[in-house]
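Thread: Newbie trying to understand structure tokens

Hi all, I'm a second-year student working on a class project, and my supervisor (Dr. K.) asked me to get a predicted structure for one chain before our next meeting. I've only ever worked with sequences, so writing a 3D structure as a token string is new to me. If someone could post the tokens and maybe explain what I'm looking at, I'd be very grateful. Here's the chain:
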Amino acid sequence: MLLLAGTLAAAAALLAHPAAAAAPAPALLALRAAAADERVYITSTGETVRIAVSDVLVADDAVNQEWAEFLARLPHGSELSDLLLYFAPLAEVHTICGSSALACYSPTQRRIVAPSEEIPEQPTRQSVLAHEYGHHLASSRLNPPWHGVSFGTKRWASYVNVCAGIQDGTFSLRQYELDPAEGFAEAYRVFAELRLGLEPSPWEIVDRAFEPDETALALIEQDVVDPWGRNVVLRLKGARSRTIRFSTPLDGRVTFTLRAPRSSVYQLRVAGAPLRLARGQGPASVSTTVCGRRQGAVTVRLLRGKGQFQLAISRP
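---
Reply by user tm_fold:
Sure, no problem. This is what the structure looks like when written as tokens:
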């Protein structure tokens, strides 16, 4: 099975598949794309799709229009208009993406490089494009403090426990079959094929821990049509000392901001974070990262004075 390289070499922080990382892909891709025949196609949905064809090929508008329609049928959002699909012979794909790659995606240039012909005994070009579009979709979604293109979309990554899996070695940003970026792209590919009524390609190139169940598919759909955009802020009030428990349904950064009345001093205690004191002249704030935990607690302790405190919990 030829590998579907997820990201190109220049984005070293994204830790793409090693075969892709070995190639001088970004400069070469820019050079090849500059010489390509690029055209804009209007789909039946009224959306625009940019498709470029290598200069060693002859562009066929009818064929390209079919591919534009296929991309428009994939589950997507406004990110479709940011994409450039570049078709090239397999030998050129190997030069750009890596010698063992069947296709690849550049998050910095927002381009998919795909083969211009069907490859015997390999996934169909539709399957390949669905996988690579999964990378483009993830790159277009917020998942702070991580990059969506590396960890996958916020809800899917939280459900699959990407953060905790990387910490305990279940997943790896350096090993293709355990890479969450590839796991999400393959899960999206399955989701897209099911939505389009296509026979899903076999699950072969990444670990089965990423293979989507019904919940994962539903979360991918939610991440497509209703992207996660910002933290939710919980606001509470209280007097004296108390421990407040809260849920953490998604992984990410949680920030606690404590305000005290002018005549009092309150202490803010969060596990794994330094103590903070809130006085009347200004708030105390501390942040921590939720990584697999689904319940949390914060303790507010009255040290001096009296009056109600105000606590804001900003969580994913």
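A couple of things are worth pointing out once you decode it. The domain at 232-315 is CATH 2.60.120.380 (Jelly Rolls). Residues 93 and 103 are 6 Å apart (CA to CA). Feel free to ask follow-ups in this thread.
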